[in-house]
Structure formats: C-alpha cells, structure tokens
Amino acid sequence: VNVFTFSELTTELLPCYKDMLAQATEANKRELKSALDGVKSDNIANFTGAFATAFEILHKYNRTGQGCQCNQAIMLVTDGPSNSFQDVFKQYNWPHMPVRVFTYLVGKD
C-alpha cells in the first residue's frame, strides 16, 4: 500500500514509503490515514503523471518478484474528473489489464 498526492508532481504522502509499497498492516494504514488529514488540494492535477508513477511502482514489483504478487489495484480519489487517462492506460495496462483501477469523484464537478 502507498498513498500519493499529485498536482504538477507526484509525491508519496509519507516520505518513508518513497518508491515502494508497504504491507497493509493496521499500523501502516493508521499512519497513512492520519497523514491524509494534512493534504490540501492545489493547482491542476496531473493525472497522467500520477497514474504513471503508480503503474511504474506496481510494474517494478511484478518484474522483480517483490511483494506477495497479489492482485494489484490503483484507487484514484479526486475532486475533478479528467479525460486524459487513455495514453497512460495504453502504455501500462492494455491489453491484459493486470491492474484494476477504481476512481472516486468527491465534492462538486
């Protein structure tokens, strides 16, 4: 598990999880949830950069055999929709779709 914030840049919510996934233990989930309280939205969201970062980390774990090799998913929570996903999905997730993607729109459109 990992959580990223993104606008112009995509960064880990917690720097100690840089370029990695952590086990989804109760302690790790609690720490990530607590850190979410300080997140503020600003600027324009770079969805392509955010998805590319997420796919790269998941692909790294697949290529190297790290982790438990379980089902992989990306969850996007945003306050504004975008139609710019197609290119990054073609590059990383088509045609076999090894990663499931769940999107959630919160707030006003």
From TrEMBL:
Q: Which InterPro entries match?
A: Ca_channel_alpha-2/delta, vWFA_dom_sf
Family annotation (SUPFAM superfamilies)? vWA-like
Q: Which Gene3D superfamilies match?
A: von Willebrand factor, type A domain
Highest taxon of source: Eukaryota
Q: Which residues form a coiled coil?
A: none
GO CC terms, sorted: voltage-gated calcium channel complex
Molecular-function GO term, any one:
voltage-gated calcium channel activity
- What is the protein's given name? VWFA domain-containing protein
Question: Which organism was this protein described from?
Answer: Graphocephala atropunctata
